[in-house]
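Progress report, Aim 2. The chain analyzed during this reporting quarter is listed below.
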Amino acid sequence: MQPARYHLTLSMAGRPMMHGWWKSEATARRKFSAWIGERGKEGARITLVDEETGTTLTTWPDEA
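Predicted structure tokens for the chain:
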């Protein structure tokens, strides 16, 4: 069984609070958007990483 490649993390005050892993990038990106709508509040940070390449695909809020 192949491990899920796309890792989504919700952190508050620098501490990981939630994790999710998906095999499909499209699904992971939909979840990313949903997490912003459901859990995006001041102090939250949501990050989507491609675990195979180590690349951060997107973050919320956007890095300045």
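The beta strands are 6-12, 15-22, 44-50, 55-60. The longest helix spans residues 25-39. These observations will guide the mutagenesis work planned for the next reporting period.
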